[in-house]
C-alpha cells in the first residue's frame, strides 16, 4: 500500500466514524466510498457488517468496477454490500471529478425523499443545493446493475442527489467536501421536517436570492472553508471527544 492509498483509507475511515458521531447511520446498511489514487479504477468501501463507529482503515475493502476484491484475503473479510456496489460503482465509473460518495438512510432524509417537491428552498442550508441537486426515482433495492445508468443520469452534473423513497447521496472532489455536502444536506432535511411539523405557512426567498445564495457557496474560498470544517470535525474523533456508544 502506498502513502496516498494509506491517506485515503485513514480519511475514509474517519468519515465513517463522523457519520456515526452525527447519528446518520442505519445499522450495517448505507455506505461511503472513496476512489483510490492512481491509474487503476479502484475504490474503497466498507466491509459489510462493520458498524460505522467501529470503522478503521483495515476494514475498508478495495474493489474494482466489476466488484472484485483487489487485495488478497479471505472471502468473509471482503464482503461488501451489493446495493452499495451498484450505487457507488455507478458514480465512480462516470464521474472522475468525484473522489468520495456518501449514501445515508436518515429519518429526515427519507422523509424529504418521500415528498413530491423534495428539498424546499426554505433555509440557508437548503440553498446550498438550490438547482444543484439531482433526484432519482425509486426502482427497488439497488441490486440491478442496469440501474447504474439511470443513477448517473439522475445525478447529472451535481454533487448531491435525493434518492426518492430511499435516502440521500452526497459526493465531493475530496473526502472533506463529501463530508460537508452530506452534513449540510442532512441538516437541511432536518430543518425542513421540523418547519413542516409546525403547520404554519412557510416563507420562501425569491428566486434571485436563492440563486445568489447558492452562488455564494461556490465562491473561490470554498475549498479553504471545506478543509477548515474537515479539520475541526476530525478533532471530534480524538479519544476524549468521541461520543460514547
From TrEMBL:
<dbReference type="InterPro" id="IPR036409">
    <property type="entry name" value="Aldolase_II/adducin_N_sf"/>
</dbReference>
<protein>
    <submittedName>
        <fullName>Methylthioribulose-1-phosphate dehydratase</fullName>
        <ecNumber>4.2.1.109</ecNumber>
    </submittedName>
</protein>
<dbReference type="GO" id="GO:0046570">
    <property type="term" value="F:methylthioribulose 1-phosphate dehydratase activity"/>
</dbReference>
<feature type="domain" description="Class II aldolase/adducin N-terminal">
    <location>
        <begin position="10"/>
        <end position="193"/>
    </location>
</feature>
<dbReference type="InterPro" id="IPR001303">
    <property type="entry name" value="Aldolase_II/adducin_N"/>
</dbReference>
<keyword id="KW-0456">Lyase</keyword>
<dbReference type="Pfam" id="PF00596">
    <property type="entry name" value="Aldolase_II"/>
</dbReference>
<comment type="similarity">
    <text>Belongs to the aldolase class II family.</text>
</comment>
<dbReference type="GO" id="GO:0005856">
    <property type="term" value="C:cytoskeleton"/>
</dbReference>
<dbReference type="InterPro" id="IPR051017">
    <property type="entry name" value="Aldolase-II_Adducin_sf"/>
</dbReference>
<dbReference type="GO" id="GO:0051015">
    <property type="term" value="F:actin filament binding"/>
</dbReference>
